[in-house]
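Lab notebook, bench 4. Still working through the backlog of constructs that have no structural model yet. Next entry is a single chain of 457 residues. Request: give me the structure tokens for it.
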Amino acid sequence: MFLSVFDMFKVGIGPSSSHTMGPMVAAARFLDDLRGSAFQVAGLRASLHGSLAFTGQGHATDRAVILGLAGFLPETYDAEKGEAALVAIAETKTVTPDDLPVLNFDPKHDLIFDYDHALPGHANGMQLMATDAQGDVIHQEVYYSIGGGFVLTAKELEEGKDSDEGAPVPYPFKSAAEMLEMAAKSGKSIAAMKRANELSRRGAGDLDAGIARIWEVMKGCMDRGLELEGILPGGLNVRRRAAKIREALEAERGMNLTAPHVVNDWISTYAMAVNEENAAGGQVVTAPTNGAAGVVPATIRYWLDHVPGASASRVDEFLLTAAAIGGLVKFNASISGAECGCQAEVGSASAMAAAGLAAVLGGTPEQIENAAEISLEHHLGMTCDPVRGLVQVPCIERNGLGAIKAVSAASLALRGDGQHFVPLDAAIETMRQTGEDMSEKYKETALGGLAVNVPNC
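Model written out:
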């Protein structure tokens, strides 16, 4: 099993990795199928099912599909060009992707939110269709957006193609127990094993440059969120708060009356800044999802800005360790809120961040595994219940609390010797089972929890 650090941390756009990035990627894959076919395509259609239908408009799924069918990709998305394209498509009722003819596509009629017919493979299902000049469907494909920007066709999902199928890697751990065993035998850290796996697929220069870009985009997203004010889009009239909290915290610096727990406000503010940017549709890094994108960068920023001896030169060690833990969660359970609730998003992110922080603070592999377990265990059962389907309430604050838990879990684990009662593998399996048993109302459908008990206008 191999999931790259660049699978766990993808550069994309907000507000959702599963509901925005995934559908855009699916549309791009469908266009590629058409480019390589002999079909005489004249038009396109799309239908959204399950969670993609129920919370799609709040997550900008409709915009993502339209722009994806027009040829846009998450990692290179230009907001100004995207807005211009949406206006043109609405006027002409056509899309013009590269290397294909002008295709008929009227968003009002050819993009359907199907609330009544869920697709069998996953809660986040969509069907893309190509039509001929008469409007008859001549080619179609079902795609599932399975969380974190990962997309599979129905056939790929059925065949279990949810991880890399390339050449074997030096340390192919599929569980935390295997990871610890390989670390003990090799004498390598978790980050070193993860780096060796990555280097079996790419050069050191590409790996280092790619990881540096991940942190650059994370930090840029956070910095924008710490400066910008105003109202977030979507109709809930949620105010950006990170900038004003940052200003207040900076004004309090050096004051003898400042309580030690104020550092928690810094951690929350870093995370909220990222998720406010995500909610606004800005550039963000899945970590492992958009809805949980603030936890890992906030924990890194806490370490760099508030912990003596921290060095930016070790951010790669943090991210490689975090990616190793995230890969275990995804392989053995899920990182999808629509599949397992927010325990799979913020819970997974918090476990990843706790592991990364424990690593750069000098933790042993056993202490790192313990940190991840503590953090994940205390997110078990967390529902995904976004008000009006927007990645705002309770998502933005929830990232702040996830980062605080990550710091606390790492600190607690480092106070021990790595021996503990509940293995990380047991926590991951419990999360999977809990998600399986969880009512659909609480899995990113906006049909239960805060989504129905808080006025959403």
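Notes after review: The first strand starts at residue 11 and ends at 13. The two ends are 45 Å apart (CA to CA). Flag for follow-up if needed.
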